[in-house]
Amino acid sequence: MASAQTSPAAKPGPRLGLRERKKIxxxxxxxxxxxxxxEEQGYDATPxxxxxDAADVSPSTVFRYFPTKEDIVxxxxxxxxxxxxxxxxxxxxxxLTAVRHAVVDGLRHILGDDTPEMRVRMRLxxxxxxxxxxxxxxxxxxxxxxxxxxxxxxGRRADDIEVRVVTAAxxxxxxxxxxxxxxxxxxxxxxxxxxxxxxxxxxxxxL
Length: 207
Description:
Low-confidence stretches: 2-13
Oligomer: single chain
Shape: globular
Number of helices: 10
Mean pLDDT: 85
Helix content: over 70%
Distance between the termini: 28 Å
Structural class: mainly alpha
Radius of gyration: 18 Å
């Protein structure tokens, strides 16, 4: 998964060193320039050297932070945040409830500012096939991380089919909820769409 605006690492917290702050600023400058150009002229029509020029950095600097153009859109810090929130849930909480709270709380942290960049990012993931495919790959990594935490909480193996199905279902519901939000013109609160999607899972996939 991914954040579209300033990463959680850039949010207020313990004061970072100058070097780390500059890295965050450079990363965000590249992202901001890219999103603006993608919105103005389209993803495929925007080369990396143009993004670098708009961000006032070299193309090599762009690639140092983002190995591919796709990574500018898809790289985020969501998984570590989700893992931290999930590990902090009460030990006696039902697994699906714990995952639900972790997903909602994590996304609230990332989507809370509801920035224009976040909205552009979600439209790009919907509209650009390469980004949609890579987003699916990133979801597979998230599945592995959540399965590991749920295995610890339940005493099951991380490759237990029920653990994997529950995890995959939650993340697929989250992705679909955000796509419905995009398809609907990005009106209302995206977390409301997520809540409705997770309600479907909790009531047992009945219609």
